[in-house]
Amino acid sequence: MDTAFILEKLILVVVVFVVTLVIAMYSTLAERKIAGFMQDRHGPDRAGLFGILQPLCDGGKFFFKEEIIPAGAHKALFILGPTLAIITACISSAVIPWGQTLTIGDRAISLQVADVNIGILYVFGVIALGVYGIMLGGWASNNKFSLMGAIRAASQSISYEIAMGLSIIALLMVTETLSIGEIVADQSGFVNWNIWVQPLGFLIFMTCAFAECNRVPFDLPECETELVGGYHTEYSSMKLGLYMFSEYINMFVSSSLMAALYFGGYNFPFMHDLGLSENWITILGVIAFFLKIFGFIFFFMWIRWTLPRFRYDQLMNLGWKMLIPLAIANIVLTGIITILKDTYF
């Protein structure tokens, strides 16, 4: 492994990390702007032009606010909770291909940090670890509302990860690979996007993504009207900021996965008919990928200000009695169609 390759990967890691944090930071502004638009008001508009500096002001506030650790809290775990949440959120994007190969001089640079052949398993493993950050924070706070929010998060995660995993199994039956890079590469051409062959699987995956990100209508772990603030009730200063950042990073990563697995990732219609160089096609592919991601992020925010929050029994019934049976039925249907296709076509 040469030095140039290591340097390329380090630069890519830094760029992906910075872009992830910037998108998460300005998602907070977009959320409030979209909420203001849907509620017929302006939203933040004091800090900078159109409120563009509001996320920087919010970040400064988190840094300079007094840090309070409750007297009865388990200090080590209280600190470890938000740390684990933000780490798992940041490393989950390592296997996402952001674009095709970029050629600079005599070197071909892959715009994917790690092209492992079990990329989907890696993402699911990291996502499963994320709930430990919430559980640790809720339990270590020594607060009944925090603990209840953490228990809700754990049970919700268990319930919806099953349906999400089953929806991915049906997709794997079609793509025959666990590599996200290969799945995206096989979707070259608008008609080859996986959304056309797995529409039900996509709907199940998207619903579970809402639950995994604790977004409305599945935000029971931090339900303000019932649990004050949920699992992060006792947190202040930057520790609270880390929990909030991890939520928005998870939303960004979930949007990236949906765009990559079902909507072609960096592929866009007629990309090879433009007569452009490979580098320009790569750059346009990255732009197209991020436009798809921003579309899903907007959809996350739109749903928040459109649908009411579920009751907890409704949340569990939807996960166990509707999504899991639908996901199993989707696997069976995909298997039947695959067998018929291989037999007669």
Automatic annotation (TrEMBL):
UniProtKB keywords: Cell membrane, Membrane, NAD, Quinone, Translocase, Transmembrane, Transmembrane helix, Ubiquinone
Pfam family, one: NADHdh
Gene: nuoH_2
EC number: 7.1.1.-
Topology of this chain in the membrane: Multi-pass membrane protein
Catalytic activity: a quinone + NADH + 5 H(+)(in) = a quinol + NAD(+) + 4 H(+)(out)
Organism from which the protein derives: Sphingobacterium kyonggiense
Major place of residence: membrane
Name listed for the protein in its UniProt record: NADH-quinone oxidoreductase subunit H
Record field: transmembrane: 6-29, 77-99, 119-141, 162-181, 193-211, 248-268, 280-303, 323-340
Subunit composition and interactions: NDH-1 is composed of 14 different subunits. Subunits NuoA, H, J, K, L, M, N constitute the membrane sector of the complex.
Function field: NDH-1 shuttles electrons from NADH, via FMN and iron-sulfur (Fe-S) centers, to quinones in the respiratory chain. The immediate electron acceptor for the enzyme in this species is believed to be ubiquinone. Couples the redox reaction to proton translocation (for every two electrons transferred, four hydrogen ions are translocated across the cytoplasmic membrane), and thus conserves the redox energy in a proton gradient. This subunit may bind ubiquinone.
Cellular localization per UniProt: Cell membrane; Membrane
